[in-house]
Amino acid sequence: MNKKLLFFVLFCMMFSVVFAQQTKTDTSQIVVPTKIGYEGDAAIEDTTSTLVIATDQQANIAYNDGVQFYEQNQFDASIQSFTQALQLNPELIKAFYGRGTSYIQKKDYQKAIEDLTKYSVEFKDDANVVYLMGFCAYYLKQNDIAIEAFNKAISMGYEDVNMHYFMGVMKFDESKYEEAIPHFNNAIQLDPNHFFSYNDRGSANRMLEKYDDAIADYNKAIEINNETALLYNNLGSAKRLKKDYEGAIKDYDKALSIDPEYHFAINNKAIALYEAGEYEAAIEIFRDVLKLKRDYAYAYNNIGLCYYKLKDYESSIEAFSTAISMNPEYAYAYIHRGSAKEMLRNMDGACSDWEKAKELGLEVAKEYCSVCIEY
Amino acid sequence: MKNQYIIIVIVSVILSFAFFNAKAQMPVEINKKEFKQGKNGYKEAMSYVKNGDLFYAKGHPGAYRMALTEYLKAYEYNQHYPELNYKIGACYLYSTEKEKAIDFLEKAYKSKPGVADDIYYLLGWANQLSYKFDDAIDFLKKHENQQPQDKQKKKSDDAATYDVAKRIKECKIGKELVANPIRVFIDNLGPVINSKYPDYGPVITTDESLIIFTSRREGSTDGAIDPSDLLHYEDLYIAYNNDKKGWSESINMRSLNTEGHDASVGLSPDGQILYTYKGVPDGTIFESKLDGDNWSKPKEMNKNINTKFHETSASISYDSKQLYFVSDREKDEFGNKSYGGKDIYVCEKLDNGKWGPARNIGEPINTKYDEEGVFMHPDGITMYFCSKQEGSMGGYDIFYSENNGAGNWSEPVNIGYPVNTPDDDVFFVVAGNARYAYYSSARDGGYGLQDIYRITFLGPEKLIVVGSEDVLIASSTATIQQKVEQEIVEVKKVRLTIMKGTVTDALSEAPIEASIEITDNEKNELITTLNSNSKTGKYLVSLPSGKNYGIAVKADDYLFYSENIDIPEATAYQEVTKDVVLSKVGIGSKIVLKNIFFDYGKETLRETSHAELERLVTLLNSYPNMTIEIGGHTDSHGGLQFNTQLSEARAKSVVDYLVDKGISKLRLTYKGYAYLQAIATNDTDEGRQQNRRVEFKVMSIK
């Protein structure tokens, strides 16, 4: 299963939850009999003014059109219909909800959050909407707002596996790995088969250098889903970081048997060989990465490192130079090329490269540059 | 004359630090039946063996070399005889070319495991020298586990006298050091310096412009051969690398070399004082000074340094105040007992210019093992030396230790492999920048038995970061790069400034021999005085960071030249070239007094000015009829009126000081010039700094 497919699965999982929650919410509060709020005839029986009735009827018709379009995944049309409904009847608050969720489907989270906010002014106790607003904030990278919303939803009794999962992801993104783990734990508690949470908890453990815990988590994720290259790749990397190169290579190979074009696994397999000291074999595999991704600067850098270890400094400089041409901001490649030049006693060249790395913000390069004056 | 007093201390120092009086007395019992080369084969072979045995029994490196020559002739007749292979191996181990020993010893052992009582020990040693540390440890342990009575038999053997447990430790350390080599280039200085004979004992100026070393090449004084080892007597050689474009051809220092052994053991950082070693009468250090391009006749150093014991290497501190040297004396002049074998001692220079009583520098540098080859770096902090102490990977290793300023030395640190080897590594000298060092080694690929090499220290391995990324979050396509520990590995930096240049006459541009006084302005103390070379006018001073230096260059009939160099503590190594031009004392001649300091915005003289003012007093006393003007100058900050008042007040402060010191008022005038005679731009800090000055101008000399 490739990454896009995996993402799609997650997205569907989440929205199936959204719809289910919405059905529950509509039934209890907005008196909408179906899905996200189809407006039935009963809703217009209490109107008194003919003009108002006519306008409200038109608004309700537009609203119902919006719902239908939504159900048909025609989100541009649903947005248009909900907008029309609101123009006809600005007090038809549920149309904000309909349009907001349509915007979510369009990934226009800013507009979604605006509509959901208007909806929530009237329906303050709708925990589902609070959750959706948190979801939008998450995608807008407004982590503080997202976490506040999720926590509010939880305090309102709302429970959702994805909400806990995203809270974990946000902590992970902020490099707060210790704090991420309890959220993944909560997600797993709600859904013991949530392999995303196992994977991500494994990744948090990996970043905390708790490689055994990471390996256990990745293995659990694979136990649930053994058709995902990413999971095997991550398992391999955890083993590689634990210096179990043989085990790592086996896992990378499994990842590649699922997705032969998963270039991360190819690159990582070569790194495992490099770290095991098999530089020549590693070079061959790095070249395989380049067959898939011709401009992959990392692979050129890594080939350069292999040649460096083999003391073939000319070839290493050539590879580092190619990496730099692919990514002129690749500060480490400058450091490496400088080191190779140093070994060839080209100190002017070495110092020039270290200077460039320093300019690119590598603190460590300052120390290297400091001795250049002595050559 | 190649006299009988020349004992082979130098030889033993240089060539055979690992000589332990091994005297395996076992005869080579060659079986006649095994000789197939004609009737006379056995007889001839036995003749060589007997000759060899005679030398072998003498038990010193030269004798082992001669024994080896004989044994190798016998070897031509029978290459499989265990006892002969054993003795050839032993000869190699106890003399030079130690790396050749292992093949012979292994051959002997394989064909006859009990070939000799100490075969395990020698195999252990030979394996150690071949970097086969695990095998070495196995053999050494076997030796240890031999029956006590066997060990008893070898009381006089190296195997008994050398600490086998220590050698096992060396092997363990060797494994560690070899697994974690330091990053260096080790370059042979090439045939302009090295010969096919042993070349060793390099000493250098701190800027690497000059090297002096010892060689046993052809062309030595009288061309005589030392009968003890069949090599030419040691002579001193010199070569130059003035423009850093490569070494000149090395030249025999005829004026210093004698018929006996003459070895280089130390050189002052500026290359003006050379310390040499002679085996006579008891291992003695000599001093020779450079005057123009002539080295003075080597003079035996005083009795505080030379004793009836052996004194070998020497190194003078950057400020010429201490002399560090090596001696195997029993105790120092303060009653401190030797730690064992050779120790490092220090003498302080007395007010009368002579070296005072020697003091053992103590632990942790000196140990019960031998210490040798002392070299005090001109940074004033770091001492390099070689030692067989704990932490060595075999024989002498090079260590360094740092002085904390209060006289305490840090725990010595092994400088590491591949500079150090399981064999002896000695006489290590380091350039001012500490990036380069010189030593002699018998490593493969040289021109002779021992060559001089230049080491370039590359520092720790630079950061290596593999390009690795993973998608760690399952719900995201974002990749995360492998965490990189950007550990900043500090490259060891020398905090030292080398100031060098030439001193010349302002008019004729002729070189001048001038005295150069270096003062610590903060402490108002004279640090040292040295001279520029009388022929070239060249000088070199070492200025460790962390001081405000006042430098005064003085010569008879000249106005002195004054320079101020403030070198903050954190200043890394730098070389500053400062050519000094001296003006003869004459009407109108003037100097800038760069070491006169005032409180900010005031005319109050700071104490740090006193050394400079005292020089002025001395000059005026030398020329009692000289009248002078003291001129005050400012930068352009502030108005003219303020600066005129300030500069005049400051000039007056100087005059007041001079009057206070007894100089007649009648000889002194002063004037404030404000910023009207700027000598540099007022647009930069540096320019303004130059403009803020006090000048001294000669108005008349009757």
| Count of discrete alpha- or pi-helical segments spanning 4 or more residues of chain B | 13
- Name the helicity range of chain B: 10-25%
Indicate the radius of gyration of chain A in whole angstroms.
27 Å
Strand content of chain A: under 5%
Q: Give the CA-CA distance, first to last residue of chain B.
A: 59 Å
Instruction: Specify the biggest β-sheet of chain B.
Output: 5 strands, antiparallel
Strand runs of chain A, count: 0
Silhouette of chain A: elongated
Helix percentage range of chain A: over 70%
> How far from one another are the termini of chain A?
55 Å
Task: Give the CATH topology of the largest domain in chain B.
Answer: Neuraminidase
General shape of chain B = elongated
CATH class of the largest domain in chain B: Mainly Beta
Count of the domains of chain B: 4
On the 0-100 scale, what is the average pLDDT of chain B?
85
Structure characterization notes:
The complex is a heterodimer of chains A (375) and B (702). Chain A has helices spanning 3-30, 50-71, 75-88, 93-105, 109-122, 127-139, 143-155, 161-173, 177-190, 195-207, 211-224, 229-241, 245-258, 263-275, 279-292, 297-309, 313-326, 331-343, 347-359, 363-370. By secondary structure, chain A is mainly α. The model of chain A is unreliable at 1-48 (pLDDT under 50). With 702 residues, chain B is α+β, with helices and mostly antiparallel strands. Chain B is built from 13 helices and 37 strands. In chain B, the strands form 10 sheets. In chain B, strands 8, 9, 10, 11 and 12 form a 5-stranded antiparallel beta sheet that branches. Chain B has a 4-stranded antiparallel beta sheet with strand order 1-23-22-21, with no helix packed on it. Chain B has a 4-stranded antiparallel beta sheet with strand order 2-3-6-7, with no helix packed on it. In chain B, α6 packs antiparallel against α7. The longest helix of chain B has 21 residues, at 640-660. In chain B, 48% of the residues are buried. Residues 1-27 and 152-157 of chain B have low confidence and may be disordered. Chains A and B meet through α1, α8, α10, α12 and α14 of A and β24 of B.
